[in-house]
Design brief:
mainly alpha, Cytochrome Bc1 Complex, Chain D, domain 2, 11 helices
């Protein structure tokens, strides 16, 4: 009789540890997936970045909606899902890349968010990531150095391709820029220093992620690029700047035309 009780007791202990280990494995799996796929654009209790803060998202949307959105937000936007469209519009129309995560993997990420929320609640507070805590020392020198890197006049330390290969900015440069990816002129206003830093460190976009694999940018390089993008946005928003440029070009063209008429056309009419 005593032996049977001992067996049941040992079985209960084994079952308990098996359940705990399963939860830990699921949590670790969700954490790994979140860090590799989500952390570039999202935080859990740390404030909005490129995308929304995911704290409490499981209380706003059910698992079925979350699985569909995480797997392909663009498909839901095209289908006219009002919540998906609202998120897309609120966060500067930056699309969240599709992925091939299974239902179980997505659910493990949701479980990780739930556990993280519980940890934050237990701590009673969570640090908020802001541009103040990731302050960029902005100066003309830094912006100039960032421009050199962006256009490929200076090489990145780890051999990364210049940003010009895929991106462009509207800074009146004759070099133009790449058309493979988004124009970055307003990126500082839309994302802030923390958002740009997160994307460069762990890009959610497959092409950019592949391009930077093995070619990580240093902290100094990221900082000067942010300074350049900040300066580009300020230049774009400066009132009257585009009009002045076009007026100057028009004036130069008019002078060239007048000189041409005077030197060639009028002389041909002299008897």
């Amino acid at each position: 009789m005593q032996t049977d009780r001992t067996k049941y007791f040992l079985f209960a202990i084994c079952l308990f540890f098996f359940s705990v280990s399963s939860v830990v494995r699921a949590q670790n799996s969700g954490e790994e997936i979140f860090e590799s796929n989500c952390s570039a654009c999202h935080t859990i209790g740390g404030g909005r970045m490129v995308g929304p803060d995911l704290s409490g998202v499981y209380q706003i949307r059910n698992n079925e909606w979350l699985i569909s959105f995480i797997r392909s937000s663009q498909q839901m936007i095209k289908a006219g899902d009002s919540a998906a469209v609202a998120i897309y519009e609120e966060y500067n129309r930056i699309p969240m890349p599709d992925n091939r995560l299974s239902d179980a993997q997505i659910l493990s990420v949701i479980d990780y968010i739930i556990v993280s929320d519980e940890d934050v609640t237990a701590a009673d507070s969570a640090p908020v990531i802001s541009d103040d805590s990731l302050a960029v020392i902005y100066s003309i020198e830094y912006a100039s150095a960032g421009r050199e890197l962006f256009y490929g006049h200076s090489a990145f330390e780890n051999g990364a391709a210049p940003c010009l290969s895929c991106h462009s900015v509207r800074d009146q440069s004759f070099l133009g820029g790449g058309k493979l990816a988004r124009d970055l002129t307003g990126s500082y206003d839309n994302l802030g220093a923390s958002g740009i830093t997160a994307i460069v460190r762990n890009s959610p976009f497959p092409v950019m992620k592949a391009a930077l694999t093995g070619h990580d940018l240093s902290e100094d390089e990221i900082q000067v690029l942010i300074s350049f993008l900040k300066a580009s946005g300020e230049q774009e928003n400066r009132p009257g700047k585009p009009a002045l440029v076009f007026f100057s070009l028009g004036l130069v063209c008019a002078l060239i035309l007048l000189v041409h008429l005077y030197l060639f056309y009028d002389r041909r009419r002299i008897p």
